[in-house]
Amino acid sequence: MTPFIKHSKLMLAVAVATAAFTGCKPKKAETVISGDAAQKVYVAPGKLDEVYLFASGGFSGQVAAYGIPSGRLLKVIPVFSQNPENGWGYTEETKAMLNTSHGFIPWDDAHHPQLSKTDGMDDGRWLFINGNNTPRIARINLATFKTEEILEVPNSGGNHSSPYCTENTEYVVAGTRFSVPIGNNTDVPITSYKENFRGALSFINVDQKEGNMNIAFQLLVPGVDYDLARSGKGVSHGWMFFSCYNSEQAHTLLEVNASQRDKDFIMAVNWKKAEEYVKQGKGKKMPATYYHNKYDEKTHSAKSTVEKEVLTLDTRELKDIVYFIPCPKSPHGADVSPDGENIVASGKLAAVIPVFSFKKLTDAIAKKTFDGEFDNVSVVKYEAALAGEVQKPGLGPLHTEFDDKGYAYTSMFVSSEIVKWKVDTREVVDRVPTYYSIGHLCVVGGDNKKPYGKYVIALNKITKDRYLPTGPELTQSAQLFDISGEKMNLLLDFPTIGEPHYAQACPAEVIMKNQKKIFELSKNEHPYAAKNEQETKVVRNGKRVDVWMTAIRSHLAPDNIEGIKQGDEVYFHVTNLEQDWDVPHGFAIKGAENTELLIMPGETQTIKWTPKSTGVFPFYCTDFCSALHQEMQGYARVSAANSTVALKYGVGDTAPKDQVAQK
């Protein structure tokens, strides 16, 4: 009996341990941070953090950027959820970003940020993030920290196993969490899971110049649940490794029914072989409706395109694309060492960590050292692919990342700790407690060919007794550990937004070199841009009124508008004339039902306002910009729907001027 089978019998002990670690406060927990820890995380005024940390916002649907080692929140980047702070998903320019085949979806569940790569190293260009609930992948431009593209993923029941970059960002790869019926007949009994449910692995091509995404092909794979994955690199370039669970193919009460077998699988995917089959014309086009939303930096506006088909490869027919490796039940992550030789994976309830060898795996495939098939996929014998096992690492290994000194760091959910072990000998060399119930962890550059190392960040699920209470729910938590020495040292607790499932971090200089400070006003191609105050105007077209407005320290133009009527649809198109870094302007008007605007230097953004009553309505700048910020305001007069008040507007001596602008 192999060790992982023995350890799978420990579920009762695991359950007891879970209660113990999540319900009890370790003795002297408050003394864990000691010595010069405070000095190590102190970033003096005027100094900058060493590292950017990008953490998923979980159920907030956003991404948060933090500075490390300070733990300071730098920015919340709106992605899948509407954000009234800056109008994301509310403005006329950004609404299209949240279009899907299910309609306008203003929320999602964001789990796994992934930095773009060049030669296996973070390159600072883009950050990808998954939408789990309504399957989507977003691309964030790290020059502007703005979401520029959201691509819906068809044939996916849930986009949790996503997005993972290949070594040179040839692809961003997404696997379905929930297998579902795919194809022409999707209205089938749930009990027909084994016969009719399939998974889909989407290989999304990324344009290397602009970053634009397109689905190159999908692999139709066995009907199980797919979890975290990692791309091969170095010796394993051209492969991808997914963790899989529910090999029982259960469809109800998975907590019990998906724990019947002693093993689940790691799926090894030879995407280079898949590319060959595509070139040979062996792919089949399948009807599929999905949205592709892009934000254009020149027009400062988004557009949606509806796609109608996807190219598929069926692994039941093309059997040398994917292979299964047995793994302790319910694995959560499959992680690849910096040299690409070792694949680390284990079950969430296990007490051992298998380390598989890429060389042994490919040798076993070549020699057909298989242990039968699962849904027409060859299962490589466990021992044939195994390099060795990390013995007694703790309970509940979840996720592993690597430093630059030959060590691996594994989060242990059940025993609530991080375990450090040597990759070549698989010997445990250190362990530290986390507070509490750690999920993922993040080593700076931990999935790179050459990790940066120095820090590991724990992303914890429970924070009782760590922060001031805030009712039934406490803030989410991250903890920073120094890993530069032989022993891991806790430096800092800091709160996070949403639930930080996973994070990626890289040296700040990698991101900073690409930073965009302004949008050049001369290159603004927004159709309603007013590039100077002489271009401002107000135009009526039936019940629609368009306001070409400018903002500059410290006034809005026009700042007096009359002739708007009750029930009109008024569009304020506000252009920020500033060409100075960090001088955004805001715009809000009394009675607006949706949001404000936050307009970056050189940018144009639009808010729709439908006044429902007569009167004089103030509008103003919401973002402090100068000593006379309070004076940056104006008025819109609304008259009755049948009023004959002329449309008049202006600023200063011309407010309101008598000219009537009609279209």
From TrEMBL:
Gene3D superfamilies per record: Cupredoxins - blue copper proteins, YVTN repeat-like/Quinoprotein amine dehydrogenase
- Subcellular localization, per the record? Cell envelope
Which class of enzymes does this protein belong to?
oxidoreductase
- Tell me which positions the record assigns to the signal sequence: 1-19
E.C. number: 1.7.2.4
Its Gene Ontology molecular function terms? copper ion binding; nitrous-oxide reductase activity
What cellular component terms from Gene Ontology apply here? cell envelope
Its protein name is: Sec-dependent nitrous-oxide reductase
